[in-house]
Specification:
binds NADPH dihydro-nicotinamide-adenine-dinucleotide phosphate; alpha/beta; binds magnesium ion; nine-stranded mixed beta sheet; binds ligand LWWEY6Y5; about 10% strand; single chain; globular
C-alpha cells in the first residue's frame, strides 16, 4: 500500500516567519486562504479588482494585486483558473520571482503541459485537494478534511517536501490523508477522473437515465428523483463504506439489478472509450483543444453551457429543489454571504 501522510508527518512550525500569497479567491482560493489562516499561517491574497477581491476583503484578508502579493510572500500558491494561469504568471508573477521563492499549484496542468516553465532557482510543487474547494472549507470547519495529493517538480532549497506536507496540514488535508505523486500522474488522473467518471461520466449517465424514463412516458419529477436526487444518497453510502457499504443498505433486488444490468450499461465499449479519453489526455490532445478553445474565446464551451441549462432535468430539478430548501442550504448560505459582501462594497 502507498504511504499515506497524516497530521503527525507535518512540521507544524514550518510557516513560522513565512508568508503565503494565495493568488485567486474562488472555489479553491477561499478555502486554502481561510483554512491556512485558521491554522495560524500568515496569508495575503492576490487578485484583480472585482467580485473575488470584495469577498476576500469582507473575509478579513489583506488583498493586493497579484504582483504585490507575490512579491511580499515566501510561498506563492496559484489558484487561478487553469486557462488563465499562463498569462497572469508571465505578466505578474514571473517578473517578481526570486531565488528561494516557492511556487505552488493545486493542479499540474500548466507545468506538466509546459505552459508555465518556472525559473530553475525556485521550488515548484503542488498540493491538490481531491475535492471541490467549497468542501475543502466546509469539511475543515467540521473538523475533518479533504484528502490531497502532493508532488515536487523542483526542489532547490531542499525544503519542498516539508513545505508540501505543512501546506497540506494547514488546509486540513492531512486529517484525511496525503499521498505523494508526480505532476504527470496528478494531472493525467485528475483530468481523467473529472472527464470519465466524476463530472463527464456522471452527468451523461444521469441525463441518459432521465431521458430513457421520460421518453418512455414516465413523469419527469419521478425521473429526477430516481436518477439525480437519490444519487447523492447512494454516493454518500459509497463514500462511507465503499461499494459493499452501499450494497448493504439497498435491497437484494437492487443489488441483483446492479450485478446484472450495471455492466450492460457501462460495458466493454464504454471502457474502450474511457481508454481513448485517457490516451487523448496522456498525448496532450485534450490540453491542446482546451487551450485553443480559450484562445478563440470559448465558442463551443459557451454554446454547450447554455444548452445544458435548458435540459429538461434542469427545469424540473429547479422546481423540485425550490420545495426542498434543506437540500441546498450550504449553497444558499454562501450566496447570501456573497450578496451581502457585494451590497457592502
Ligand atoms: N474547483 C476545484 O474544486 C478544484 C480546482 N483545482 C485547481 O485549483 C485551481 C483554481 O481553480 P478554481 O478554484 O476552480 O478557480 P475559480 O474559477 O473558482 O477561481 C478563480 C479565481 O481566480 C481569480 N482570477 C481569475 N482571473 C484572474 C486574473 N486575471 N487576475 C487575478 N485573479 C483572477 C478569480 O477572481 P474574479 O472573481 O476576479 O474572476 C477567482 O477568484 C485550478 O488550477 C484548478 O484546476 C484543484 C482541485 C479542485
Ligand atoms: C472533479 C473536478 C476537479 O478535478 C475537482 C473538484 O477535483 C476540478 O478540477 O474542479
Ligand atoms: Mg480533481
Ligand atoms: Mg480537476
Amino acid at each position: 500500500m502507498a504511504k499515506v501522510y497524516y497530521n503527525g508527518d507535518a512540521n507544524q512550525q514550518y510557516f513560522n516567519h513565512k508568508k503565503v500569497a494565495v493568488i485567486g479567491y474562488g472555489s479553491q482560493g477561499h478555502a486554502h486562504a481561510q483554512n491556512l489562516r485558521d491554522s495560524g499561517v500568515e496569508v495575503v491574497v492576490g487578485l484583480r479588482e472585482g467580485r473575488s477581491w470584495n469577498n476576500a476583503v469582507n473575509d478579513g484578508f489583506s488583498v493586493y494585486n497579484v504582483k504585490e502579493a507575490a512579491e511580499q510572500a515566501d510561498v506563492i500558491m496559484i489558484l487561478l483558473p487553469d486557462e488563465r494561469q499562463t498569462a497572469v504568471y508571465n505578466e505578474e508573477i514571473a517578473p517578481v520571482l526570486r531565488q528561494g521563492h516557492a511556487l505552488m499549484f493545486a493542479h499540474g496542468f500548466n507545468v506538466h503541459f509546459n505552459q508555465i516553465v518556472p525559473p530553475a532557482d525556485v521550488d515548484v510543487l503542488l498540493v491538490a485537494p481531491k475535492g471541490p474547494g467549497h468542501l475543502v472549507r466546509r469539511t475543515f470547519e467540521q473538523g475533518a478534511g479533504v484528502p490531497a495529493l502532493f508532488a515536487i517538480h523542483q526542489d532547490v532549497t531542499g525544503d519542498a517536501r516539508e513545505l508540501a506536507l505543512a501546506y497540506a496540514y494547514g488546509i486540513g488535508s492531512l486529517r484525511a490523508g496525503g499521498l505523494e505523486t508526480t505532476f504527470k500522474e496528478e494531472t493525467e488522473t485528475d483530468l481523467f477522473g473529472e472527464q470519465a467518471v466524476l463530472c463527464g461520466g456522471l452527468t451523461s449517465l444521469v441525463k441518459a437515465g432521465f431521458e430513457t424514463l421520460t421518453e418512455a412516458g414516465y413523469q419527469p419529477e419521478l425521473a429526477y428523483f430516481e436518477c439525480l436526487h437519490e444519487l447523492k444518497l447512494i454516493v454518500d453510502l459509497m463514500y462511507e463504506g465503499g461499494l459493499e457499504g452501499m450494497r448493504y443498505s439497498i435491497s437484494d433486488t437492487a443489488q441483483w439489478g446492479d450485478f446484472v444490468s450495471g455492466p450492460r450499461v457501462v460495458n466493454e465499449e464504454v471502457k474502450k472509450e474511457m481508454k481513448r479519453v485517457l490516451t487523448d489526455i496522456q498525448q496532450g490532445q485534450f490540453a491542446k483543444g482546451w487551450i485553443l478553445e480559450n484562445q478563440a474565446n470559448r465558442p463551443v464551451f459557451n454554446a454547450i453551457n447554455e444548452s445544458e441549462k435548458e435540459h429538461p432535468i434542469e427545469k424540473v430539478g429547479r422546481e423540485l429543489r425550490a420545495m426542498m430548501p434543506f437540500v441546498n442550504q450550504n449553497t444558499k448560505q454562501a450566496e447570501k454571504k456573497e450578496v451581502a459582501a457585494l451590497a457592502k462594497n
